[in-house]
Each structure stands twice: as structure tokens, then as C-alpha cells.
Amino acid sequence: MKDLTDTRHTAKRDGSQVLDAARLFRDHAEFVANFAVRLGVGRPEVDDVVQEVFLVAHRRGGFVPGPARPTTWLAEITLRVVSASRRKRRRSWEDADTEAVAAATAQAGSSPGEQAEASEALRRVQQALDTLEEGKRAVFILFELEGESCEAIAAGLGIPIGTVYSRLHKARKQFMEAHARLVAAPPRPLARSQTVTS
Amino acid sequence: MNQEPTRLLDDVTASAGLRRDLAAAARHRVPYDAGAGAARFEASLAKGAGAASSSWGAGTFGIGALILGGLIGGGLWLSQPPAPTTPTTAIAGAGDGRQIEAVDEDMSAKPAALPTPSAPEAVVQDMSPEPATASADAPEEVVEDMSEKPAVASARSEAKKARTGKSGRAEAARGGSRAGDGGADYLREARGLQAARNFLGRDPAEALARAEAGAAEFKAGQFAQEWEGVAVLALFELSRKSEAERRAAAFLKRFPNGPYAAQVREALDRP
Fold this sequence. Notes:
Mean pLDDT of chain B: 61
Largest sheet of chain A: none
Strand content of chain B: under 5%
Radius of gyration of chain B: 30 Å
Distance between the termini of chain B: 62 Å
Shape of chain B: extended
Radius of gyration of chain A: 19 Å
Oligomer: heterodimer
Largest interface: A-B, 82 and 74 residues
Shape of chain A: globular
Strand content of chain A: under 5%
Number of domains of chain A: 1
């Protein structure tokens, strides 16, 4: 009873902030979840990461429109949250990427053939992403997969635009090399979680 | 300024396989249950605010205790003959010893323990570690980083129009509902959805009733898909097979990759 009263009071007192955070959550929770998975967060941890990201966004007072877009601004927070969490829970994230791919497999494509193909594509992309260092990986994901502009990425991540270009250039080179190796190599054995799903 | 590079997806010089894989990855969205997430987020906000107010209370109590302790300490100090030396470290050590005892006695924390019957200087010395301890209890360094950010955020002055791309499309799709409704409705809807979902597996009739009422109440809401998903799952649990199958088929046609799609498919496949 007491807690509920406190909650309402807080919501009233900080009305604007709470609404901002709620609006951000509504519009971009899915983006943050996707970005986190692409950064290598395992499915069981995705929701925790999403929650933490929006709590940080709330504590920062919400998004202020500017050169960054809400997505790139949230991406910067996500990157920090993921880095911090990764350091804490390194062990439990060992299989993060295979879990992410397995989760994706369950809903990608409609026929079994298409599903298998989509699953392979996602696995290759995720494994190629794994070869990238975090900063480059974030820029690559935002530019190549999320369709963000270099300018918005620079503003969101708080880095000079030249750094975005340079990271993107290096990330692409590394990603393409890794991808080519993965295409040439036979598919690796399915992870435990993938076997269960398919 | 600089020319925006061509995305690998659109770069005809990149290998077809690479572009195909990137296209699949770009299209793919991880299913995320926004209703459950929003309800949890709201709860966290409430809990965080509660914690903040309780820590404020503890802080206030601590300051009061410090003042009281300081007065007592000062009185004792004044009543004693002046010591020949001022062994600061010894005083600090004695203070630490007492601190542990006092924390055991008084749950509210270190501030109550800080004042010792020693010189006022010792009290001042003991106060300084206090904020450091408090910040060390903060969740993690991410929280520390935040303090730097508002300045950056507030420096952003001009709003920039959203450009094309996935996020832009998503925003456009949601734009209509965003203008009129408030965050309060969103949270109320999320809370209602969470409540309805909680009845699945226990009381499907209640889950169904709540899901249908929620869908009717929040016709222009954010969770149409989730309300229908809960309703369909509830129908399966109630063994209303034909209706469940009919609505499941319609649901999967509308939301083939939604957060409830896998569960609905599973329910359909169940004998």
C-alpha cells in the first residue's frame, strides 16, 4: 500500500521525466533489444539490458533532440551498459551469440528451407560481428544494419565523424574478411540451443 | 561536407552472398515483449524513486545524527583537559571500531556511527568517506558516466529531422498514436496486459476476459498484438478449439514474427 502511494507520488513529481522515459521505451525498446543482441548479449540477458538502458536514459533526463537521433543516443547507452555487464558476467555470456542465433532461427523465414537459409545468414553475420572490437562493431551495426547516418552515429556515440568513418572502414574490412572465411568454411556444428529449436 | 558512404547492402561491388546475409540480418528483428518490458520498467522506476527517497531519509537522519554526535563529541572534548598530542590516526582507528558497533545497533547506517567521543576534527574526517561509500553502492559505472552526459545532451540545440531507414519507418508507423496519447495510457495499458498475461496457465477465463476488455479499451493502443495473443492462448487453454484455431490463424497471418507467434504456433501444433 505504502509503496503504491510512493510510486504515484514520484510519478507526479517527476511527471515529465517519467513520460519521456516511457515514450522512449515504447518507441525504441525493440531497437535496443536488437542492438544488444547484435552486440552479443544472450537472450536471457536482453531484457535486463533493455531495462538498464532505459533507466539510464531516464536518469539522464530523457532524450534532448539534437544532431543525434534517439536511436543513436540509446545506442551509446546500450554500448556502455553492455560493456559493463559483459565485464561482470563474462562467463554467462560465453554462448550468447549462438543463443541469439537460435532465437532468431525460431522465427526467421516461413518454410523449413527458408528458415535454414535465414538461420545460416544470421549465424554468419553474428559470427563475423564477433570478430569486431566493440566500438567498431557498434558503428558497423548502426550504419550497415540499422541504417543510421554517420552524422547521427557520431553525435549519438559522442565521437568525431572522422572516427566514425575510420571505424566503419576498418570494421567493414574485418567483417568482409570474416564473412568470406565463414562462407568458405563448412557450417559449424549446431549449438545445443539451436538443436533444441530446430 | 563528407559524402555518406554507400551501405554494403546497396554496394553492387560487394559480393552477392554478403549483401544477401546483411539484408537478412537487417530485416530480422528480435522478438521483444514490449508489454512485459514496459511493465517491468515502470516498476523499476517506482522502485528507484522509492530507493532514492529512502536514501534521502537515511541521509537526513545521518546528518541529524552527525550534528548530535558532533555536539556530544564537542562537549566531551571541551570538558576534557587538552591532550598533549593529536594522534589523528589513533582517533580514526577508534572511530572505526565504534563505527562497526554502532552500525549493528542502528540499521540506518554509518552516519549514526560516525560521531565519536573524540575531537570534532575526527568527525569531519570520518564524514568524507561517506559519499564515496554511497557512490560505490550505485549499480555500476554506467551510473557514474551519466553525470557527465546531461551537459552533452543539453548542448544539443537544434532538432534534426528523422531521415529514412528502418527506425524512421518505425517511427512513422507509430507516429499517429504518439501524438494524441500520453505515456500514462501506455503504462496503464502495459500494466493491464501484464495482469491479463499473469492469468494464463491459472485462470484462462479471466485472462481471456481481461485480454478482450483490454483490446476494446485500448483500440488505438500499442499492444493490439499482445492483447490478441493472450486471448488466443487463453482460448486454447479453455479448449475452445475451433474459435482458438480460427483466431490463431488470423493472428499468425497478421503477426507472423511477433512476440506471441511462437507460442501461438506451438498451441496450434499441440494435439
